[in-house]
Predict the structure.
Amino acid sequence: MLSFFLKSKLHHLRVTEAQLEYAGSMTFDPDFLEAAGIAPFEKILVADLENGERFETYAIAGARGSRVCCLNGATARKGKVGDRVIVFTFCALTPEEAAVHRPRIVVFDGVRNEIVRPSPV
């Protein structure tokens, strides 16, 4: 039997852009995705700390070094520039895999999208 567990988390990331006229998804600096082990086009769950909204979408990579966190398409209605968000991914594991699994949690400063605590790999 498989159970679902936290795979990775971007904690206290600040929204830098919101683009309503976009096909969808959420754009991140590739450095952020790599730090958490999130693949481009991977499904994500997002929680907005400012308004309590929670929504699902998928991650796409923006410009490296940009510190971008952009709400695209309909997700632009779920938050606004300046909001702090938490981004989650999950994985399905067997009991044996779960016993040794450790999620990758990357903590940001909540201000300028600087990583203050990278996750051990």
The longest helix spans residues 30-36. The longest strand covers residues 3-14. Residues 3-117 form a domain with the Barwin-like endoglucanases fold (CATH 2.40.40.20).
